[in-house]
Amino acid sequence: MTSGLKHLPGYFDRAAQEELVALLREALAKAPLYTPVMPKSGRPLTVRMSNLGSLGWVSDRGGYRYQPTHPETGQPWPAIPGPVMAVWRKVAQYPHEPEACLVNYYREGAKLGLHRDEDEEDFAAPVVSVSLGDTAIFRIGGLERQGKTETLKLSSGDVLVLGGPSRLRYHGIDRVLSGTSTLLKDGGRLNLTLRRVTKP
Ligand code: MD6
Ligand code: FE
Question: Going from the N-terminus, what domains does the chain have, and what CATH number goes with each?
Answer without folding.
Answer: 19-60+67-109 (2.60.120.590)
